[in-house]
Specification:
The structure is a single chain. This protein is an alpha+beta fold and 161 residues long. It has a single domain, classed as Gcn5-related N-acetyltransferase (GNAT) (Aminopeptidase, 3-Layer(aba) Sandwich), CATH 3.40.630. It has a seven-stranded mixed β-sheet. The longest helix is centred in the middle third of the chain and has 15 residues. The model has no long low-confidence stretch (mean pLDDT 96).
Length: 161
């Protein structure tokens, strides 16, 4: 797998990853009917450092890295990750997390925080915990899952130093 910075020509492959995840509505708080233009404007925002994961000629994942907050909270990183349906269970998310933690350290971040991890996303929660993330907060019923109703969301945190 090759992880590289996203370029303008990656927009269609990033959308191909994003669309089924957005439409499913199970892991992100983005509107399920979000259009391509709005989704790409969000993901490829100038505030995000965006990467894509390639396996052969296929783009199988994308993530962004940003400061979680400005000012006094700017030393804490935040990321969003999406794996292509074809990449699920093949180590793509693990590779993105490894890369993002290394990149966050390179940029001088002292910690990383995930603000809203859906509790029913067991694979992601287990993966993040395997990297040393701890659940530091629980938001009861904060997410309306399309099939499971109101479920909890977690705040996860990991020191990088």
């Amino acid at each position: 797998m090759l992880i590289r910075p996203a370029a303008n020509e990656d927009a269609n492959s990033v959308w191909a990853i994003m669309e089924p995840i957005i439409r499913a509505g199970e892991t992100y708080t983005l509107p399920r009917d979000m259009d391509k233009e709005s989704a790409l404007a969000y993901w490829l925002s100038a505030a995000h450092e965006v990467f894509v994961v390639e396996e052969g000629s296929a783009t199988v994942g994308t993530y962004f890295l940003q400061a979680n907050h400005q000012g006094g909270g700017a030393h804490v990183a935040n990321c969003g990750y999406m794996t292509a349906v074809s990449g699920t269970g093949r180590g793509v998310a693990r590779a993105m997390c490894t890369h993002s933690l290394d990149r966050a350290r390179e940029r001088g971040f002292r910690a990383m925080q995930f603000n809203f991890v859906i509790s029913t996303n067991d694979r992601a929660v287990r993966l993040w915990q395997s990297f040393g993330f701890e659940i530091v907060g629980r938001l009861p019923g904060a997410f309306q899952h399309p099939t499971q109703g109101y479920v909890d969301a977690y705040v996860l945190y990991c020191n990088l130093w």
